[in-house]
Batch of 2 targets.
Target 1
Amino acid sequence: MAARKLALAYLAGAILSGFAARAQAAPLQWGVDLGIEHSDNIGLSPADPMSATALIPSLLVAWQDQGARYRGALAGTFSYYHYTQGEIGDQWLGNGSGKFDWLMRPGRLYWAFEDYIGQEPVDVLRASTPENTQRTNVFATGPTLTLRLGSATELQTDLRYITSTANKTDAFNADRGQAAAHLLREIGPLSRLSLNVSGQDVRFREDALKPNDYRRYEAFLGYEYDGPRLHLQAAAGGSKLKFDDGRDFRKPYAQALGRFSVSARGELTFELDDRLYDAAEDLIARAPDPATFFDPLGGVNMRTTTISPDVYMDKEAQLGYVWRGPRLEARLGGYWRKQDFLTLTNFDQRAYGPALNVLYALTPRTSLSAFATRNVTRYSASAREDHLGYYGVAMGHQLAQHWSVGLQYARRKQTSTDPTQEYTENRVLLTLSYRPTGA
């Protein structure tokens, strides 16, 4: 629920920025929200709902910049939930990503720092309540060296130390060393090929998990095309895992993603994955992007990450379409996902569902929005199937140059073959927002 709560608060604040948010190109965009939210079933109970009201101050920030000796990016929402009844403990919730490169020798050598924070369920098989939420963090640092091998060819090498932690699931806590090399070749003004190899050594901090320590190797060919209407990235290769307990796995590696400008107002996006993943990689892949963070069509992401030490085979397909008119904007999308864990097979799952987000400028100062998502998740080991619907409407009105107010209603309802996992929740959120020029 933590990820959902952040998305809910963000959507109410995002529509307050109206259509002006995308027109700004300032390196720093930020805002402050003060919200009051009421839930009629904070614990997502099937039979004993408990109401709760929370006061929620939030900071939203997105930053991108580059200087002679640095480049950096930051995006995130950081909120404090104070529950007025006192029956639920207050919470700090954050969902963000930060990247900073120290350009030691511009064009040749830089040192990277990356940090990703979020909240995820402790047990993905249970409802995401405040008690079933934990903080996660992935930090990476190390050098990248680039060598020019000709007018159209370069070799890039990376070394990284990576640490992953969760404040409740100790099995996620691990240290990693990673080395990678990428041979890049420009094959035209709009396209290039790459040969990529990498190796990673993963060591868990819990003694009981030492047999699960592993080394992972990947090799793949990549292709990228960046044209005036079409952007395409594709990769194909293989992965190998060697566990300290003697287990050995070989799996395919395939990815493709792209976007196509159907018209001046419409854009089609897609993504395909068939590769090994782990929880740390998934948290990085889902991190907020500063380039689109204040986009009022950013949507509501209901996806969660299974925080565990295991590696899983991830097959996923996503398709989306965005249309932006002078007053009406809409995003329609859908996904299908299959996860097969190498060890913890009770987490094996299949999931799919559509999502719709609509924004309408009623007047230059007033916006209306609505969203709807429907997710179906099937757990292979238990034959359990959950159907989750999440719907909402919101209204935002600009009071003055920097001040806005928003009101949102959202409803979440889950039915399941396991009656203990069924629930209905209604939420109302009132938000006062401050946005300086450029946010």
Target 2
Amino acid sequence: MLCHILLTYGVGPVEEASGSGVLWLASRLCGLVLSKPRCVILVRLLLSVPGVSSDDIVIYQRVEYNMRVAVVATWGLPLMWRRVRYFVPKFPSKLCGRPSDYSEVALEREGYSSTAVVRDALAGHEVHVVVVGQESIVAKCRNAPGEPRDDKQKVDAEVCRLNGELHGRVAGVEELRREAEDRLRRYVELFLGRADVVVLPAVGWYDGYRFSGSLDSAGFFIVDEVYRRLEQLAPDAVVLDVTHGINYMPLFARQAVYMVSKALYVRRGAPRCLLVVSSDPVTQDGQDAAINIVESVELEGTTLDEVLVDLATDKDITPLRLLRGEPGEAAETAGAVRRLVKDVAGRLGMLADALRLGLLLYFAQVGGDVRNLAELVNKAAEEARDAVLKASLEREGPWVHVVRRLAADPGLARLRILAEVLAWAHGEAQRCGAEDGFYKMNCLGDAADALKLGVVAKTLLKNEIDSLSDRLKGWAEEGPRLACEALGEICKPCVADKRILIAHAGLAKALVDVARRGEELYVRLRRDCAAVVETHLRKIEE
């Protein structure tokens, strides 16, 4: 494959290529043809070519650090933004670092949007922007704009005109949301050229509008949308710009981005870091504003245990609740969504607890329904989204009142992510399984590493695997036999209290059968013992 690429692009056989020619090719392929992982592999191979000196390692480093970066930005009311002179710190090649790594100013740029300046400062990386706004962007303008002096003021004038016309005619929330997305995209096109756009349900009073609902719905939407976008983008790093966010938006965005980034890191090994940036506040045009690194978080080392704690959801969650009005269609919708996730949250929580305790064998054997559970949660989340976006519009004098009678619980968005994380984890654990329900014991230890189990859980599991392996070295039977019998001991099957269950990571000798195939030991939780483990897990939940 490598030789084919080299010949195709005109360098010739590897052994005949010069060092400079090979590295030039590598840089071109990395920029135009190959994905980053393939690119890094290619450069590592090419560094062994005669004529490539140690000085050329810079080429490799440039490839290694050319990252896919997702910039998530909260935008409130662009009409109110000032034209200022931004000063952006120099980002280290890996983006995340110590606070002292960002002291040097690398870019000075005049403009209205910190997001555009941050994107420019990330030149050299593959940057994708997600702009999070809300429905209140359609609010009427307080003052008529003056004569436009630049492109931004031209857009402001057009937005003010359109918002005024909309306020007089809007008859449904679907139209209002379409217009809100249109306004947001106008500013995106002006400042960024292109970006993904998310429009959150608004809450509160704005010029000409009153939005009645619940902040819970905004919390649900921002978690759900950030997860969808970042999962699709698969970034190496995430930068969150909260400069332009209003009210609750920066707080919700930080919580969502951090939680989602950790969940994706555990599953995929990326993103590896998160930066949160915000500029100095200004009061008028022409002022200076530094873009500050508010937070720099290295995600490497994040464990599955941390993610499962983040995603924990009340087993009695009310995914969709009635806010106001007489019971009717809204109440029926809430009931239908509640029935979809009935008992699901408790079941997923129990499987998560099993992983947190290192009970990987139990999880692998009894967690086969997790994908079906994930489908139920996905269906519930989609129905909750649709229900929350529906609203009635009522005119109250000069106000357009947007009334939402249902609120989605942010826990439903977390539950959706949890189900997908557990489905992934179950797939990894199943790699150790055989057709007859046994699992290769040493493979379970490798799976604990792949799943990034917590330190305590992984240590307990690996210690028990090592202990059983050592004690069964002289066992020559094929089995299967109850582990205590294979060890030459007498025990009653399935007798293990909570302490023993946890201390032995679910591999207690009274709970599992063992079998030998060649040099490999296999293990299986006895079917009649699964109920004992489940009983202890329920007590832990309580």
